[in-house]
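Handout, section 4.2: multi-component inputs.
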Amino acid sequence: MGIAHLRSDAAPDAVAEVVKADGAVIVDRLAPRDLMDRIERELHPWVSRTPMGPDEFSGRRTRRTGALIARSPASRELVMHPLALGATAMVLAHATNFQLHLTQSIAIGPGEPAQPLHRDQWAFDFFPFPRGYDVQCNVIWAQTAFTEPNGATRVVVGSNNAEDGRVFAPSDTMPAEMELGSALFYSGSVYHGGGANQTDATRVGLNITYNVAWLRQEENQYLSVPHEVAAGLPDELLRLMGYARGAYALGYIDDLRDPIEAVRPGLGSIGFRGDAA
Ligand SMILES: O=C(O)CCC(=O)C(=O)O
Ligand SMILES: [Fe+2]
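Output:
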């Protein structure tokens, strides 16, 4: 089965519906080229200084560059993209709120073999979440075109319903081929992996992911984004980054203060009960 495609004017519930059913969907040409180009220019100095990955999973010919919010002001538009937030709110609707999980440019260089197939939710110490209870909703924005030869993400469509520990063969996967500016939405439960890059050009995707706010974030936003930068960000983005309580009480400061108070004194309410992200 192939990966479904939706148009950029798709409604959040249409995206969420396919993510819940198949584990993945591509939304074509969602971000304008000039936005993707601005992000590319802003990240270039950081990407060029990023070392290759240390192991097979990270990819020894792959550069993973994070802290996008701090390093690329333009990337904040993708982080806050209404379709990403709207679809995530539906995929993770069983939780009180969600938060930003990580921001990462993934530049797969020539000659990189395929990444091992995995579920992103294995990051949570391989906890076996109940089937249908998604804890992550993820997006990979194509910074370059994704083609089968250049390492388009490989997805086992429908494997979000498979059991943990299932072994899939490369022939079970489909490449998420898409144009620059298109976006692959996928759940934390679907088996997938970066593809092998058999070309002489680098494939770049911006992985921006969200998780239920009762779990830990993979990229530590409080330390990745310096306080001075955080102070200049909109309240809504700050809350998404984790300057909000998860569920009822998680992450409060001292005398039950809302964590947004660390950046915006006087803004937060006192007491338990966070705002939804
Ligand atoms: O770069 C890709 O296509 C996917 C990478 C991935 O799945 C991961 O690093 O978890
Ligand atoms: Fe992954």
